[in-house]
Amino acid sequence: MKKLVLALMLSFICLGVNAQTPEEAATTNKWIETFKKLDGDKDWNTIITKSEECKSEIPNWEYVYLYCGIANYNLKQYDNAITNLSTFIEKNQTDAVTGAYLIRGHSYSEKKDIAKAISDYDKFLEKNPNDNLTILAKANAYLNVNDLNGYINQLGIVLTTDQNNLFLLENRANAYSKQNNWQKALEDYNKLISLDSTKVSYYNNRAYANYSLKTPESLKLAISDYNKIVSLGGGNENVFTILTSLNKEIKDYPAEISAWDKLIQLSPDKTDYFYRRGTAKFNNSDFKGAIADFDVVLKADPKHLNALKRRYNSKNRIKDVKGADADAKLIKVLEAEKAPASPAKK
Fold this sequence. Notes:
This protein is mainly alpha-helical. The protein is built from 18 helices and no strands. Among the domains are: 29-131, Serine Threonine Protein Phosphatase 5, Tetratricopeptide repeat (Alpha Horseshoe), CATH 1.25.40.10; 236-336, Alpha Horseshoe (Serine Threonine Protein Phosphatase 5, Tetratricopeptide repeat), CATH 1.25.40. Helix 12 packs antiparallel against helix 13 (237-249).
């Protein structure tokens, strides 16, 4: 199952002039232009270095803390980001604090301090209730501490307005699967397949969900999805192995044999596949076909006792008395070889 991940990118440019004299205004504008250029160049280290010089020139200009917080966030120095952004929030009484709450929320989320991250995201969302990127950031915060209920709830909020978002639907379906909430997972996988009927991973995940329900009907649905994967060109050793197991479970031996046929085509040197196909043929009353497969196994390994016993039973079923007697003698010899030695007499 895929790991659920949301990637977040942030570009934040701010302007703030709160000078009282023309000279202070000119100095402030100089620093705004300096920080705008450094921000555009993503030169985060220089922003931090320059911030000390800026504070000495215009000590009452709180926006320097915002720029410094952004730079520290992008350098993954989250403690420093939180300190600077908190200072800005304390000093600033304008709507610019809304953006600071957002970045500080990201910083708290990275530190897995989820209660504070959620609080900051909620403050941002009070002003921007339809900002889906922030709702997804909030979802990611829940995911960072494996709170799948919170994660699913936030994805659901976005999906109410973006109902056909394949990425979010798949993430929510996978989250439901991690909770073993198979019915909800199936609802999302069904929606995904209705939107894109060509993606193998959707069928694979839906098949697993149906398999996990373990009902006769769900097993058949899982088989149908794995067969669809084959028709889409995704048939590999793992898929055909699963098909052998599922068809055996519902006692559809012809379908099981067909899956073994594919596996033998893929790996003709694996004698165990012949043994298991022979067993499926025996269960399907194809005793001659079973004998042919057990012959292959015993040619490669004459001491394969289970293959010998199954061939003996198959020969009995077709009334090959001579062949069965010969196998019975070989079975006795092999069982004697495997029997523990008797303790020596004193």
